[in-house]
Specification:
alpha+beta; 2 helices; 3 strands; globular
Length: 80
């Protein structure tokens, strides 16, 4: 994946998306239920920021580990 700026946007339907700023390609979508938003007392956007951040850090670690292990960035994965 090329280096680009990412942004978090709240769509008109309430979903939160992580997307590339320059071409608006959506990478990840979060959709909190009304019940979850109420439980989080309006802090769902802060929670989403933390979730996106943790996900990007983990994705970077997975890619780095695969490259270190296999010497390639094209490794197949089995999902359980």
């Amino acid at each position: 994946m090329s280096t680009s700026f990412l942004e978090i946007i709240e769509l008109s339907d309430g979903r939160l998306v992580l997307r590339r700023a320059e071409d608006e390609t959506v990478l990840v979508t979060l959709d909190f239920s009304d019940q979850a938003k109420e439980f989080l007392q309006g802090q769902h956007i802060e929670i989403a920021k933390a979730m996106f951040s943790a996900g990007m850090q983990m994705a970077g670690k997975v890619v780095e580990d695969d490259y270190d292990t296999y010497g390639s960035d094209t490794v197949s994965r089995m999902l359980h």
